Amino acid sequence: MFNKKLLAPLVALIALTGVSCGGGGGIGQASDTFVITAAHTHPEHMAMHDWQLIFQREVQANSNGRIVMNIFPNGQLGGDRELLEGIQAGDITMMGASTAPKAFFVPDLAVFDALFAHEDLESARRWWQDPAFRSHLGTIFREAGFHHLGGFDSGFRVLTTNVPIHSIDDVSGVRIRTSTNVYHVEGWRAIGANPTPLGISEVYMALQLGVVDAQDNPVDLTEAFGFFDHQRYAMEITGFFHINNYVMSPAFYDSLPPDLQRVVDEAAATATREAMIIRDREMLEAVRDTTERGIEWIPVSPELNSQFAERARTTWYLVQADVTPQTWDVFTAALERSQQ
Question: How many CB atoms lie under 10 A from the CB of residue 113?
């Protein structure tokens, strides 16, 4: 379970502000004041943190001080799983992460791991914003003990490699690091690569020692972790559409009066819009910076991308078997609408 000792800095901070600690999702409440304890595991210069900063600005300003928010980045309060357990236990109010760690708590999120589901960024974003799909996400998050606030995408993961890939045959036998995710492992195996599951903390050394030839991650994360130091090529394929989203304690959200619930909802929408602008700018800057450092960006033709997709989609049955029929139907229907 969640390690409450990690909350010592927070308790000290709340004591200094004169706000007493209450129950219900990390609520610190005195009179009509509600305290949000927000956390994530990313560095402060990444868009994950920007979203929470924007959300903090909006809720504090538009609630006239009735909501106070404290942010703990860089895993100060624990890893993703600990933060999610903290929300369920009522010790953390809000956290942000990709969909991957949340799938342990919300198994139907496996639909986000159906590789090569999208043809391009525009259709992928239409899918993510599909009203019926988003409504269903809210339902399955609630059933698992979370209130879904929404979030933004990091575009498609970028494939970096020391092996130039210009055709589907060039992927054959390439040792690619994947997350410890069976859908990713089997998807890359179906494409023809030799997948090697590793934790994110192991990737830099594995690239440096030549244990793996390639890896895929959002370009900003790839740059932040220094993976480009040991890679020569990069290419943007449509394999994995990376979503960063935010969940809140349902007990906290439900305890808010209706006007403050609207403040929270509007703050989440504003944070998503502004974070997307920041994220897209950072993407362009990262591509420019890596090009200047000697990384060769290989253009991916629609034909090559289709060949990747044709092979990877043979493993979708694994995802379908692990989610409810309703979620699979909602996912595929939204996918069809996004491609029209």
Answer: 22
User: Tens digits of per-residue pLDDT, 26-81?
Assistant: 434 445 899 999 999 988 988 899 999 999 999 999 999 999 999 999 999 999 99
Distance of CA 208 to the CA centre of its chain: 26
Residue 93 in tokens = 């109010």
Burial zone of 239 (CB within 10 Å; 0-12 exposed, 13-18 middle, 19+ buried): buried
CA separation for the pair 102, 286 (Å, rounded): 27
Neighbours of 252 (CB within 10 A): 26
pTM, entire model = 0.85
- Angle, alpha carbons 96-93-249 (nearest 5°): 90
- CA–CA separation, 325 vs 61, rounded Å? 42
- 203-220 pLDDT, tens digit per residue, is 999 999 999 999 999 888
- Nearest Cα residue to 75 out of 201, 181, 243: 201
Three-state helix/strand/coil letters over the chain: CCCHHHHHHHHHHHHHHCCCECCCCCCEEECCEEEEEEECCCCCCCHHHHHHHHHHHHHHHHCCCCEEEEEECCCCCCCHHHHHHHHHHCCCCEEEEEHHHHCCCCHHHHHHHCCCCCCCHHHHHHHHCCHHHHHHHHHHHHHCCCEEEEEEEEEEEEEEECCCCCCHHHHCCCEEEECCCHHHHHHHHHHCCEEEECCHHHHHHHHHHCCCCEEEECHHHHHHCCHHHHCCEEEEEEEEEEEEEEEECHHHHHHCCHHHHHHHHHHHHHHHHHHHHHHHHHHHHHHHHHHHCCCEECCCCHHHHHHHHHHHHHHHHHHHHHCCHHHHHHHHHHHHHHCC
| Amino acid found at 213 | D
Question: What topology does CATH give the domain 4-338?
Answer: D-Maltodextrin-Binding Protein; domain 2 (3.40.190)
Which residues, 6 or more positions from 244, have their beta carbon under 8 angstroms from its beta carbon? 47, 48, 51, 96, 97, 98, 151, 152, 153, 154
